[in-house]
């Protein structure tokens, strides 16, 4: 392997440079980096790295997304940060090439000259949030007595008071004032927003 000689910051002088990366870039300590992927290629990159770069530890946090489709709720898991994933690796020539040229990789985020490591405690904070279910679940965390607004359905735009969750999953009771009297309405929690 040819040695890379750095003559001045940002300039290299050798005939056989290792893909244009200076020797001072390499690091033997495993750190977290952010990899930007091509659109919707996060899973493909994770699968590829599992076979080609086993020393790397990918982390692709996901979030539960709920959409309405044909009058029913469809729940899917999607990347928390679309087109990005975290990768814990030592930065050496072999790993650099395995990640940089992997199918689905767009680039390793950095400051232009070199990749920048992400603080391990930031990644751990995200992992702690993902850990209980294996994904992030966003819910309306509302205590009793808080004013809420109905977002969809025949009561869209009306405001009421959050009463309590019901025994059925994802359903809650909301108190609405309708025609001068207070009525209790059972509704899906995803149809509400805090006022």
Automatic annotation (TrEMBL):
Q: Which UniProt keywords apply?
A: Transcription, Transcription antitermination, Transcription regulation
Gene3D superfamilies found in the cross-reference section: NusG, N-terminal domain (3.30.70.940)
Which InterPro entries does the record cross-reference, listed alphabetically?
NGN-like_dom, NGN_dom_sf, NusG-like, Translation_prot_SH3-like_sf
Name of one Pfam family that matches: NusG
Enumerate the PANTHER family for this protein: RHO-INTERACTING TRANSCRIPTION TERMINATION FACTOR NUSG, TRANSCRIPTION ANTITERMINATION PROTEIN RFAH
Q: For this UniProt entry, what's an example GO CC term?
A: cytosol
Q: Which organism is it from?
A: Candidatus Segetimicrobium genomatis
**Taxonomy, superkingdom:** Bacteria
Q: Where is the organism placed in the taxonomic lineage, from the top?
A: Bacteria, Bacillati, Candidatus Sysuimicrobiota, Candidatus Sysuimicrobiia, Candidatus Sysuimicrobiales
Protein name per UniProt: NusG-like N-terminal domain-containing protein
